[in-house]
Specification:
- The chain is mostly helical and 463 residues long.
- 64% of the residues lie in helices and 2% in strands.
- The protein contains 23 helices and 3 strands.
- The protein has a 3-stranded mixed sheet with strand order 1-3-2.
- β2 and β3 form a beta hairpin.
Protein backbone atom coordinates (compact mmCIF):
# COMPACT_ATOMS: atom_id res chain seq x y z
CA UNK A 1 0.00 0.00 0.00
CA UNK A 2 1.33 3.43 -0.98
CA UNK A 3 2.07 5.66 2.01
CA UNK A 4 1.12 9.31 2.39
CA UNK A 5 4.64 10.64 1.85
CA UNK A 6 5.08 8.76 -1.43
CA UNK A 7 1.74 10.05 -2.69
CA UNK A 8 2.77 13.58 -1.68
CA UNK A 9 6.06 13.34 -3.59
CA UNK A 10 4.35 11.91 -6.66
CA UNK A 11 1.77 14.68 -6.55
CA UNK A 12 4.43 17.39 -6.40
CA UNK A 13 6.34 15.76 -9.27
CA UNK A 14 3.17 15.61 -11.34
CA UNK A 15 2.71 19.36 -10.84
CA UNK A 16 6.34 20.42 -11.27
CA UNK A 17 7.68 18.15 -13.97
CA UNK A 18 4.62 16.85 -15.83
CA UNK A 19 2.50 19.99 -15.48
CA UNK A 20 -0.46 17.66 -14.83
CA UNK A 21 -2.70 19.62 -12.46
CA UNK A 22 -5.49 17.03 -12.36
CA UNK A 23 -3.16 14.15 -11.50
CA UNK A 24 -1.27 16.26 -8.98
CA UNK A 25 -4.52 17.24 -7.26
CA UNK A 26 -5.64 13.60 -7.14
CA UNK A 27 -2.38 12.37 -5.63
CA UNK A 28 -2.25 15.17 -3.05
CA UNK A 29 -5.85 14.49 -2.05
CA UNK A 30 -5.08 10.78 -1.57
CA UNK A 31 -2.04 11.72 0.52
CA UNK A 32 -4.09 13.99 2.75
CA UNK A 33 -6.71 11.29 3.29
CA UNK A 34 -3.96 9.19 4.87
CA UNK A 35 -2.13 12.02 6.64
CA UNK A 36 -4.21 15.21 6.98
CA UNK A 37 -1.47 16.78 9.15
CA UNK A 38 0.90 17.41 6.19
CA UNK A 39 0.84 21.19 6.01
CA UNK A 40 2.89 21.30 2.78
CA UNK A 41 0.42 18.98 1.05
CA UNK A 42 -2.37 21.42 1.86
CA UNK A 43 -0.35 24.28 0.37
CA UNK A 44 0.44 22.35 -2.82
CA UNK A 45 -3.23 21.37 -3.09
CA UNK A 46 -4.19 25.05 -2.79
CA UNK A 47 -2.08 25.82 -5.87
CA UNK A 48 -4.14 23.37 -7.94
CA UNK A 49 -7.51 24.95 -7.14
CA UNK A 50 -9.13 27.72 -9.16
CA UNK A 51 -11.90 28.40 -6.63
CA UNK A 52 -10.59 31.20 -4.34
CA UNK A 53 -12.72 30.04 -1.39
CA UNK A 54 -11.48 26.45 -1.57
CA UNK A 55 -7.93 27.65 -2.03
CA UNK A 56 -8.14 29.76 1.15
CA UNK A 57 -9.65 26.79 2.99
CA UNK A 58 -6.58 24.68 2.13
CA UNK A 59 -4.24 27.45 3.26
CA UNK A 60 -6.19 27.81 6.50
CA UNK A 61 -5.84 24.07 7.11
CA UNK A 62 -2.06 24.42 6.73
CA UNK A 63 -2.05 27.35 9.17
CA UNK A 64 -4.15 25.39 11.65
CA UNK A 65 -1.40 22.75 11.65
CA UNK A 66 1.44 25.27 11.81
CA UNK A 67 0.48 28.91 12.41
CA UNK A 68 4.11 29.94 11.82
CA UNK A 69 4.36 28.48 8.31
CA UNK A 70 5.83 31.37 6.33
CA UNK A 71 4.72 30.04 2.96
CA UNK A 72 1.15 29.64 4.18
CA UNK A 73 1.15 33.19 5.53
CA UNK A 74 2.55 34.51 2.26
CA UNK A 75 0.00 32.58 0.20
CA UNK A 76 -2.82 33.80 2.43
CA UNK A 77 -1.77 37.39 1.77
CA UNK A 78 -1.36 36.72 -1.93
CA UNK A 79 -4.68 35.01 -2.55
CA UNK A 80 -6.96 36.81 -0.10
CA UNK A 81 -5.45 40.25 0.27
CA UNK A 82 -6.36 40.06 3.97
CA UNK A 83 -3.57 41.01 6.42
CA UNK A 84 -2.44 38.06 8.43
CA UNK A 85 -1.15 38.38 11.98
CA UNK A 86 2.50 37.51 11.68
CA UNK A 87 3.91 35.58 14.57
CA UNK A 88 7.66 35.60 15.02
CA UNK A 89 9.26 32.19 14.99
CA UNK A 90 10.08 30.98 18.47
CA UNK A 91 13.81 31.19 19.01
CA UNK A 92 16.05 31.24 22.08
CA UNK A 93 17.05 34.61 23.47
CA UNK A 94 15.59 36.45 20.47
CA UNK A 95 18.21 34.86 18.25
CA UNK A 96 16.77 35.94 14.89
CA UNK A 97 15.84 39.48 14.01
CA UNK A 98 12.10 40.37 14.07
CA UNK A 99 10.06 38.92 11.23
CA UNK A 100 9.70 41.24 8.22
CA UNK A 101 7.40 41.17 5.26
CA UNK A 102 8.18 38.08 3.19
CA UNK A 103 8.00 37.74 -0.57
CA UNK A 104 5.72 35.30 -2.39
CA UNK A 105 8.09 32.45 -1.59
CA UNK A 106 8.24 33.19 2.09
CA UNK A 107 11.78 34.63 2.00
CA UNK A 108 12.78 37.79 3.77
CA UNK A 109 14.50 40.25 1.43
CA UNK A 110 17.15 42.70 2.48
CA UNK A 111 15.34 45.97 3.14
CA UNK A 112 18.52 47.99 3.27
CA UNK A 113 22.15 47.61 2.43
CA UNK A 114 24.21 45.93 5.15
CA UNK A 115 26.64 48.10 7.08
CA UNK A 116 30.32 48.14 6.23
CA UNK A 117 32.15 45.08 7.44
CA UNK A 118 33.97 45.69 10.70
CA UNK A 119 36.48 42.86 10.98
CA UNK A 120 37.53 43.85 14.50
CA UNK A 121 33.98 43.64 15.77
CA UNK A 122 33.46 40.33 13.93
CA UNK A 123 36.61 38.93 15.52
CA UNK A 124 35.39 40.04 18.96
CA UNK A 125 31.97 38.43 18.42
CA UNK A 126 33.57 35.16 17.33
CA UNK A 127 35.71 35.17 20.47
CA UNK A 128 32.62 35.74 22.64
CA UNK A 129 30.78 32.94 20.83
CA UNK A 130 33.68 30.52 21.41
CA UNK A 131 33.74 31.41 25.10
CA UNK A 132 29.97 30.88 25.40
CA UNK A 133 30.20 27.47 23.69
CA UNK A 134 32.91 26.41 26.13
CA UNK A 135 30.69 27.61 29.00
CA UNK A 136 27.78 25.56 27.63
CA UNK A 137 25.69 28.58 26.67
CA UNK A 138 24.82 27.55 23.11
CA UNK A 139 21.93 30.00 22.84
CA UNK A 140 24.23 32.89 23.73
CA UNK A 141 26.77 31.71 21.16
CA UNK A 142 24.07 31.56 18.48
CA UNK A 143 23.17 35.13 19.30
CA UNK A 144 26.78 36.25 18.74
CA UNK A 145 26.97 34.44 15.36
CA UNK A 146 23.71 36.07 14.31
CA UNK A 147 25.22 39.45 15.19
CA UNK A 148 28.14 38.60 12.94
CA UNK A 149 25.63 37.88 10.17
CA UNK A 150 24.01 41.25 10.78
CA UNK A 151 27.38 42.81 9.97
CA UNK A 152 28.38 40.42 7.17
CA UNK A 153 25.24 38.67 5.99
CA UNK A 154 27.03 35.76 4.28
CA UNK A 155 29.94 35.14 6.63
CA UNK A 156 30.50 31.43 6.01
CA UNK A 157 31.89 30.56 9.44
CA UNK A 158 29.12 32.34 11.34
CA UNK A 159 26.51 30.86 9.00
CA UNK A 160 27.85 27.34 9.43
CA UNK A 161 27.94 27.61 13.22
CA UNK A 162 24.59 29.35 13.64
CA UNK A 163 22.72 27.04 11.23
CA UNK A 164 24.38 23.96 12.68
CA UNK A 165 23.36 24.70 16.27
CA UNK A 166 19.90 25.98 15.31
CA UNK A 167 19.30 22.73 13.43
CA UNK A 168 20.36 20.67 16.42
CA UNK A 169 17.92 22.63 18.57
CA UNK A 170 15.19 21.96 15.94
CA UNK A 171 14.84 25.64 15.03
CA UNK A 172 14.90 24.86 11.30
CA UNK A 173 12.81 27.85 10.26
CA UNK A 174 15.25 30.21 12.00
CA UNK A 175 18.17 28.58 10.25
CA UNK A 176 16.29 28.87 6.97
CA UNK A 177 15.69 32.58 7.51
CA UNK A 178 19.40 33.25 8.07
CA UNK A 179 20.38 31.31 4.95
CA UNK A 180 17.81 32.98 2.72
CA UNK A 181 18.80 36.45 3.93
CA UNK A 182 22.29 35.70 2.65
CA UNK A 183 20.92 34.39 -0.64
CA UNK A 184 18.64 37.40 -1.06
CA UNK A 185 21.67 39.63 -0.56
CA UNK A 186 23.33 38.01 -3.60
CA UNK A 187 25.93 35.85 -1.88
CA UNK A 188 28.21 33.78 -4.12
CA UNK A 189 29.34 31.29 -1.44
CA UNK A 190 28.53 27.72 -2.58
CA UNK A 191 28.16 26.44 0.99
CA UNK A 192 25.23 28.78 1.68
CA UNK A 193 23.31 27.61 -1.37
CA UNK A 194 24.00 23.99 -0.47
CA UNK A 195 22.74 24.63 3.06
CA UNK A 196 19.55 26.19 1.69
CA UNK A 197 19.08 23.17 -0.56
CA UNK A 198 19.55 20.79 2.38
CA UNK A 199 16.96 22.67 4.41
CA UNK A 200 14.48 22.63 1.52
CA UNK A 201 14.87 18.89 1.09
CA UNK A 202 14.63 18.29 4.84
CA UNK A 203 11.31 20.15 4.89
CA UNK A 204 10.14 18.53 1.64
CA UNK A 205 9.84 22.05 0.30
CA UNK A 206 10.07 21.48 -3.44
CA UNK A 207 8.93 25.03 -4.13
CA UNK A 208 11.97 26.42 -2.29
CA UNK A 209 14.19 23.96 -4.13
CA UNK A 210 12.84 25.17 -7.46
CA UNK A 211 13.18 28.86 -6.51
CA UNK A 212 16.74 28.25 -5.33
CA UNK A 213 17.77 26.56 -8.58
CA UNK A 214 16.15 29.25 -10.74
CA UNK A 215 17.77 32.03 -8.75
CA UNK A 216 21.25 30.52 -8.96
CA UNK A 217 20.98 30.01 -12.72
CA UNK A 218 19.79 33.60 -13.22
CA UNK A 219 22.76 35.13 -11.34
CA UNK A 220 25.63 35.82 -13.79
CA UNK A 221 28.03 36.52 -10.92
CA UNK A 222 27.58 32.99 -9.58
CA UNK A 223 30.55 30.78 -10.35
CA UNK A 224 29.97 27.57 -12.29
CA UNK A 225 31.25 25.61 -9.31
CA UNK A 226 28.20 26.72 -7.31
CA UNK A 227 25.88 25.34 -9.96
CA UNK A 228 27.79 22.07 -10.26
CA UNK A 229 27.78 21.68 -6.48
CA UNK A 230 24.01 22.18 -6.28
CA UNK A 231 23.43 19.82 -9.19
CA UNK A 232 25.65 17.25 -7.50
CA UNK A 233 23.62 17.54 -4.31
CA UNK A 234 20.38 17.10 -6.30
CA UNK A 235 21.80 13.99 -7.96
CA UNK A 236 22.86 12.57 -4.60
CA UNK A 237 19.30 13.14 -3.38
CA UNK A 238 18.03 11.28 -6.48
CA UNK A 239 16.27 14.41 -7.73
CA UNK A 240 17.42 13.73 -11.29
CA UNK A 241 14.67 15.76 -12.96
CA UNK A 242 15.56 18.90 -11.01
CA UNK A 243 19.27 18.39 -11.69
CA UNK A 244 18.65 18.02 -15.42
CA UNK A 245 16.39 21.09 -15.56
CA UNK A 246 18.93 23.21 -13.71
CA UNK A 247 21.79 22.16 -15.99
CA UNK A 248 19.75 22.79 -19.13
CA UNK A 249 18.81 26.29 -17.97
CA UNK A 250 22.39 27.03 -16.91
CA UNK A 251 23.78 25.92 -20.27
CA UNK A 252 21.39 28.24 -22.09
CA UNK A 253 23.25 31.22 -20.61
CA UNK A 254 26.66 29.50 -20.23
CA UNK A 255 27.03 27.36 -23.38
CA UNK A 256 30.82 27.33 -23.17
CA UNK A 257 31.18 26.23 -19.55
CA UNK A 258 33.34 23.11 -19.45
CA UNK A 259 32.23 22.32 -15.90
CA UNK A 260 28.55 22.35 -16.82
CA UNK A 261 29.02 20.54 -20.14
CA UNK A 262 31.05 17.80 -18.51
CA UNK A 263 28.55 17.43 -15.67
CA UNK A 264 25.68 17.21 -18.14
CA UNK A 265 27.62 14.49 -19.95
CA UNK A 266 28.05 12.63 -16.65
CA UNK A 267 24.32 12.99 -15.92
CA UNK A 268 23.34 11.70 -19.37
CA UNK A 269 25.75 8.79 -18.96
CA UNK A 270 24.21 7.97 -15.60
CA UNK A 271 20.77 8.03 -17.24
CA UNK A 272 21.98 5.58 -19.88
CA UNK A 273 21.82 8.04 -22.80
CA UNK A 274 25.30 7.42 -24.20
CA UNK A 275 24.71 9.34 -27.43
CA UNK A 276 23.76 12.54 -25.60
CA UNK A 277 26.58 11.99 -23.09
CA UNK A 278 29.09 11.81 -25.94
CA UNK A 279 27.67 15.00 -27.42
CA UNK A 280 28.24 16.98 -24.23
CA UNK A 281 31.67 15.42 -23.63
CA UNK A 282 32.67 16.45 -27.16
CA UNK A 283 31.50 20.02 -26.62
CA UNK A 284 33.49 20.21 -23.39
CA UNK A 285 36.63 18.66 -24.92
CA UNK A 286 36.57 21.01 -27.91
CA UNK A 287 36.87 23.98 -25.55
CA UNK A 288 40.35 22.72 -24.64
CA UNK A 289 42.00 19.91 -22.74
CA UNK A 290 44.28 22.07 -20.58
CA UNK A 291 41.72 22.03 -17.76
CA UNK A 292 40.75 19.12 -15.54
CA UNK A 293 37.21 19.05 -16.93
CA UNK A 294 38.50 19.16 -20.52
CA UNK A 295 40.84 16.23 -19.96
CA UNK A 296 38.18 14.17 -18.23
CA UNK A 297 35.63 14.92 -20.95
CA UNK A 298 38.14 13.98 -23.65
CA UNK A 299 38.95 10.72 -21.88
CA UNK A 300 35.30 9.79 -21.48
CA UNK A 301 34.62 10.75 -25.08
CA UNK A 302 37.13 8.19 -26.29
CA UNK A 303 35.32 5.55 -24.24
CA UNK A 304 31.92 6.36 -25.72
CA UNK A 305 30.45 6.68 -29.21
CA UNK A 306 32.51 8.22 -32.00
CA UNK A 307 31.44 11.77 -32.87
CA UNK A 308 31.10 13.09 -36.40
CA UNK A 309 32.26 16.70 -36.28
CA UNK A 310 32.56 19.50 -38.83
CA UNK A 311 36.20 18.58 -39.31
CA UNK A 312 35.17 15.24 -40.83
CA UNK A 313 32.10 16.61 -42.60
CA UNK A 314 33.99 19.33 -44.42
CA UNK A 315 37.05 17.26 -45.41
CA UNK A 316 37.71 16.70 -49.12
CA UNK A 317 40.47 14.25 -48.20
CA UNK A 318 38.11 11.95 -46.29
CA UNK A 319 35.60 11.96 -49.15
CA UNK A 320 38.29 11.01 -51.68
CA UNK A 321 39.58 8.36 -49.29
CA UNK A 322 36.16 6.72 -49.25
CA UNK A 323 36.07 6.94 -53.05
CA UNK A 324 39.49 5.27 -53.15
CA UNK A 325 37.98 2.28 -51.37
CA UNK A 326 35.50 1.89 -54.22
CA UNK A 327 38.33 2.23 -56.74
CA UNK A 328 40.24 -0.59 -55.02
CA UNK A 329 37.20 -2.84 -55.46
CA UNK A 330 37.24 -2.06 -59.19
CA UNK A 331 40.97 -2.85 -59.36
CA UNK A 332 40.18 -6.31 -57.99
CA UNK A 333 37.49 -6.76 -60.65
CA UNK A 334 39.95 -5.70 -63.34
CA UNK A 335 42.59 -8.05 -61.95
CA UNK A 336 40.16 -10.97 -62.10
CA UNK A 337 39.08 -9.99 -65.63
CA UNK A 338 42.75 -9.95 -66.73
CA UNK A 339 43.30 -13.51 -65.59
CA UNK A 340 44.70 -12.40 -62.21
CA UNK A 341 47.65 -10.70 -63.88
CA UNK A 342 48.15 -7.04 -62.97
CA UNK A 343 50.55 -6.55 -65.89
CA UNK A 344 47.76 -7.54 -68.28
CA UNK A 345 45.22 -4.98 -67.08
CA UNK A 346 45.74 -2.72 -70.04
CA UNK A 347 44.73 0.88 -70.70
CA UNK A 348 40.98 0.19 -70.85
CA UNK A 349 40.77 -1.45 -67.44
CA UNK A 350 42.94 1.23 -65.78
CA UNK A 351 40.71 3.85 -67.36
CA UNK A 352 37.77 2.04 -65.79
CA UNK A 353 39.43 2.25 -62.37
CA UNK A 354 39.87 6.03 -62.79
CA UNK A 355 36.24 6.41 -63.86
CA UNK A 356 35.20 4.34 -60.81
CA UNK A 357 37.21 6.68 -58.55
CA UNK A 358 35.39 9.73 -59.93
CA UNK A 359 32.00 7.99 -59.87
CA UNK A 360 32.56 6.84 -56.31
CA UNK A 361 33.48 10.36 -55.22
CA UNK A 362 30.33 11.83 -56.79
CA UNK A 363 28.14 9.15 -55.19
CA UNK A 364 29.70 9.64 -51.76
CA UNK A 365 29.38 13.43 -52.06
CA UNK A 366 25.69 13.07 -52.86
CA UNK A 367 24.97 10.65 -50.02
CA UNK A 368 27.32 10.71 -47.02
CA UNK A 369 29.55 13.78 -47.53
CA UNK A 370 27.39 16.68 -48.76
CA UNK A 371 29.16 19.30 -46.60
CA UNK A 372 32.65 19.23 -48.09
CA UNK A 373 34.38 22.56 -48.22
CA UNK A 374 34.60 24.57 -50.35
CA UNK A 375 32.42 22.48 -52.71
CA UNK A 376 29.23 22.92 -50.64
CA UNK A 377 29.78 26.68 -50.50
CA UNK A 378 30.44 26.92 -54.24
CA UNK A 379 27.18 25.12 -54.98
CA UNK A 380 25.15 27.54 -52.85
CA UNK A 381 24.67 25.35 -49.77
CA UNK A 382 23.14 26.58 -46.50
CA UNK A 383 23.80 25.58 -42.89
CA UNK A 384 21.08 23.13 -41.80
CA UNK A 385 19.09 24.06 -38.67
CA UNK A 386 20.28 22.41 -35.45
CA UNK A 387 17.92 19.76 -34.14
CA UNK A 388 16.69 20.38 -30.63
CA UNK A 389 13.57 21.23 -28.62
CA UNK A 390 12.62 24.02 -31.06
CA UNK A 391 13.48 21.97 -34.14
CA UNK A 392 12.96 18.29 -33.33
CA UNK A 393 13.91 15.55 -35.80
CA UNK A 394 11.23 14.42 -38.19
CA UNK A 395 9.38 11.17 -37.44
CA UNK A 396 11.68 8.26 -38.08
CA UNK A 397 14.71 10.54 -38.30
CA UNK A 398 17.64 9.87 -35.96
CA UNK A 399 20.33 12.16 -34.59
CA UNK A 400 22.93 9.46 -35.17
CA UNK A 401 23.89 7.28 -38.12
CA UNK A 402 25.06 3.69 -37.79
CA UNK A 403 26.20 4.24 -34.24
CA UNK A 404 28.02 7.45 -35.16
CA UNK A 405 26.95 10.51 -33.18
CA UNK A 406 26.41 13.60 -35.29
CA UNK A 407 27.47 16.83 -33.61
CA UNK A 408 25.63 20.11 -34.41
CA UNK A 409 27.08 21.60 -37.60
CA UNK A 410 28.04 25.06 -38.77
CA UNK A 411 28.87 24.01 -42.35
CA UNK A 412 26.60 24.52 -45.40
CA UNK A 413 25.15 21.45 -47.07
CA UNK A 414 24.85 20.90 -50.84
CA UNK A 415 21.27 21.64 -52.00
CA UNK A 416 19.07 18.57 -52.69
CA UNK A 417 18.84 19.24 -56.44
CA UNK A 418 22.63 19.27 -56.85
CA UNK A 419 22.96 16.19 -54.65
CA UNK A 420 20.47 14.31 -56.84
CA UNK A 421 22.37 15.32 -59.99
CA UNK A 422 25.74 14.34 -58.52
CA UNK A 423 24.33 11.02 -57.34
CA UNK A 424 22.90 10.20 -60.77
CA UNK A 425 26.20 11.09 -62.48
CA UNK A 426 28.10 8.97 -59.98
CA UNK A 427 25.91 5.91 -60.54
CA UNK A 428 26.27 6.25 -64.34
CA UNK A 429 30.08 6.52 -64.08
CA UNK A 430 30.22 3.47 -61.81
CA UNK A 431 28.24 1.45 -64.35
CA UNK A 432 30.55 2.60 -67.16
CA UNK A 433 33.58 1.74 -65.04
CA UNK A 434 32.17 -1.74 -64.37
CA UNK A 435 31.89 -2.34 -68.12
CA UNK A 436 35.46 -1.11 -68.73
CA UNK A 437 37.17 -3.15 -66.00
CA UNK A 438 35.08 -6.29 -66.43
CA UNK A 439 34.70 -6.24 -70.22
CA UNK A 440 36.08 -9.70 -70.96
CA UNK A 441 33.87 -11.37 -68.37
CA UNK A 442 30.82 -9.48 -69.61
CA UNK A 443 31.52 -10.53 -73.21
CA UNK A 444 31.87 -14.15 -72.10
CA UNK A 445 28.55 -13.94 -70.34
CA UNK A 446 26.95 -12.72 -73.57
CA UNK A 447 28.87 -15.01 -75.92
CA UNK A 448 29.96 -18.12 -74.06
CA UNK A 449 32.65 -20.27 -75.84
CA UNK A 450 31.99 -24.02 -75.67
CA UNK A 451 34.90 -26.10 -74.35
CA UNK A 452 36.13 -27.98 -77.49
CA UNK A 453 39.37 -29.39 -76.18
CA UNK A 454 37.94 -31.20 -73.17
CA UNK A 455 37.04 -34.90 -73.86
CA UNK A 456 33.46 -35.89 -73.09
CA UNK A 457 32.51 -38.72 -70.78
CA UNK A 458 31.54 -40.86 -73.78
CA UNK A 459 35.01 -40.44 -75.31
CA UNK A 460 36.56 -41.60 -72.08
CA UNK A 461 34.29 -44.64 -71.95
CA UNK A 462 35.11 -45.62 -75.55
CA UNK A 463 38.78 -45.52 -74.79
Amino acid sequence: MTDAQSLFREGVLALREQQDVAEGRRLLTESLKINPQNEMAWLWLARTLSDPAKRIQCIDRALSINPDNEQALALKRKYSGVPVAEVATVAPAAVVAPFVEADANGHTPQSKAPPAVDQRQIKRLFKEADDLVEAGDVEGAIEQWVRVLEIEVDNEVAMRNAVGYLSRLKYIDDAKELVWRAIDSGTTHPSIYLTALDIARYQNDYADEEVLCERVVAMPEIDDSVITAIVGRLIDAESIGSAEDMLEKALESRPKSQKLLKQMGDLRHMMGDEAEAARYYDRAARLGTSTKEGREADKKLTESAAVLTDRERGSLVLAWREAAGIAVFYVLLAWQDAGMNLLALGVTRWLGVIVALIGGYLTITATSSPQQQPLATWLGGEVPPEQGPKNPPKPGESTSRKGLLEDPTELPIIPPAFRAALGAMGVILLLVAAWLVFNSAINLLGNPVPPTDIPSIFDLMNE
